[in-house]
Design brief:
Helices cover about 30% and strands about 25% of the residues. By secondary structure, it is an alpha+beta fold. Helix 3 packs across helix 5 (about 260-280), helix 3 packs across helix 6 and helix 5 (about 260-280) runs antiparallel to helix 7 (about 295-305). The radius of gyration is 27 Å and the shape is elongated. It binds 4-amino-1,4-dioxobutan-2-aminium adenosine-5'-monophosphate and magnesium ion (MG). Magnesium ion binds near residues 381, 389 and 392. The site of magnesium ion (MG) has 3 residues, from strand 16.
């Protein structure tokens, strides 16, 4: 008897009338008056359930099978047959059913088969993967991770594990979680009255990384083509549908490359991964078509075929000013684009992803390369409808004297960045890179409005359950 997954059955990998064993959880159960129970069983391998036919001649029919409810776990030994109904291709006619786990007090099962709100399910992250929705999210998420890795591997990029604990703020600005083993009740104080971090675990202040970029640059300036893909931590005080305190970022860094090289590379990679999920996860995407976005297939096909729009930051300001939708007081060279501004550009003006390039240096991090105009940096952000920014990248300032003047302007201590400056001292090269917010792009692909619903255990301000 072969143990098979439900996806194997629906991929026609299992011969009709063969003896099989299927293991899973019950989605629904109906019992006919004729002494026959219909059990919809799922095992997470695909979006479908397989229907199990349990007849009253099974030895545990009365005392066990009749008592099974949604969520119970069972092992079914039986025969794969052509379905007796019209809704599905196959059924499993059970010869024996072993009950593994019952549901304590079925009336209070938090994810019973009735419809639940996303908000309700967020309180049950440990159980919500059992719903069709989160099962589908998890499978596409897995496929998307592999697709990114495959694209980079095929293009000769090396995956570098950049550190999660760091002593440096890579973005040069706040929002970091501290890593410390100091006793909160007995904080050591130095002569100046400040916390004495020399007594801390690493003998200095340490944090969780907000980006692997700076350490990744060291490898780009040795292996030429590298990427990092791991968790990122940001203590931003933003409780929105697009902010997580812990998220995954894909960061790509390429030596001897300019802004236009990385823009093309990033756009091609995004189109490639969309084609992969369309090809490999069409059943799951069909589920999202039925439940969250009826346009999903067209949207993804368009995304993978049509070139993204590209505009200068200055043009973006002009478009926003001419729209008469926003107060012009906040729209001049140097203004930060708010999420409303970004959404107007992608959702109403272009109605498609847009790449904005050449931002004022005052809006961007110290490492971005200064353009010849002396006021903008060679940077790019990619914005998409419904979310806003999903990618941020730039050429890196490879000229030591200009980098040092940026440290000075931004009141950063250049001595803290000694090893980063070394890259510019020893065989400096032009290089560029970008970071993709994995959950942001993923929620855009699936048309899921809240970023908390595309990762298994979301961490956001005031919430770190599980
Ligand atoms: O634009 P950011 O801050 O860029 C960097 O960190 C660069 N060092 C990346 C690089 O060039 N290697 O972040 C990159 C992306 C954003 O475009 C956004 O998609 C995502 O990370 N992101 C977040 N995603 C979820 N929750 C948050 N709080 C996020 N903050 C940024
Ligand atoms: Mg950014």
């Amino acid at each position: 008897m072969t143990i098979v997954s439900i996806s194997d059955v629906f991929l026609d990998k299992i011969k009709l009338n063969s003896s099989i064993c299927i293991q899973g959880w019950i989605k629904n159960k109906r019992t006919s008056k004729m002494g026959l129970s219909f059990i919809d069983l799922y095992d997470g391998s695909c979006v479908y359930c397989i229907q199990v036919l349990a007849q009253n001649k099974l030895q545990n029919y009365a005392n066990e099978i009749l008592k099974l409810t949604s969520g119970c776990s069972i092992i079914v030994f039986g025969k794969l047959i052509k379905s007796i109904g019209n809704n599905q291709k196959y059924d499993v006619k059970a010869n024996d059913i072993k009950v593994l786990g019952l549901i304590d007090n079925p009336g209070s099962y938090p994810i019973s088969s009735k419809k639940h709100t996303m908000k309700h399910l967020r309180n049950f992250s440990h159980l919500r993967a059992r719903t069709n929705f989160f099962g589908a999210v998890s499978r596409v998420r897995n496929c998307l991770f592999h697709a990114f890795h495959n694209f980079l591997y095929k293009n000769g990029y090396y995956w570098v594990s950049t550190p999660i604990i760091t002593g440096l703020n890579s973005e040069g600005a706040g929002d970091m979680f501290r890593v410390s083993t100091l006793d909160f009740k007995k904080i050591p104080i130095n002569k100046n009255g400040d916390v004495d971090f020399r007594k801390d675990f690493f003998n200095k202040e340490s944090f969780l990384s907000v980006s692997g970029q700076l350490t990744l640059e060291t490898y780009a300036c040795a292996l030429s083509k590298v990427y990092a893909f791991g968790p990122i931590f940001r203590a931003e005080n933003s409780n929105t549908s697009r902010h997580l305190s812990e998220f995954w970022m894909l960061e790509v860094e390429t030596a001897f490359s300019r802004l236009y090289d990385i823009i093309n590379f990033c756009e091609n990679m995004l189109k490639y991964v969309v084609n992969i999920i369309l090809e490999k996860c069409s059943n799951d995407i069909k589920f999202f078509q039925d439940t969250v976005d009826k346009n999903i297939f067209k949207r993804l096909y368009d995304f993978s075929k049509k070139k993204f729009f590209q505009i200068e930051y200055k043009e973006a300001i002009k478009i926003l000013n001419n729209s008469n939708r926003f107060s012009t007081q906040n729209l001049f060279f140097g203004s930060e684009l708010s999420s409303d501004h970004e959404r107007f550009l992608v959702e109403e003006y272009f109605k498609f992803p847009v790449i904005i390039i050449n931002y004022p240096k005052s809006l961007k991090a110290f490492y971005m390369r200064l353009n010849d105009d002396g006021e903008t940096v060679s940077a790019m952000d990619i914005l998409v409808p419904g979310i806003g920014e999903v990618v941020g990248g730039s050429e890196r300032e490879e000229r030591l004297s200009i980098l040092d003047s940026r440290f000075y302007e931004l009141k950063l201590n250049k001595n803290d960045y000694g090893w980063y400056r070394d890259l510019r001292k020893y065989g400096t090269v032009p290089h560029s890179g970008f970071g993709i917010g994995f959950e942001r792009i993923f929620s855009y692909f699936l048309g899921i409005k809240n970023i908390k619903d595309v990762c298994p255990f979301p961490r956001t301000i005031h919430k770190s359950d599980f």
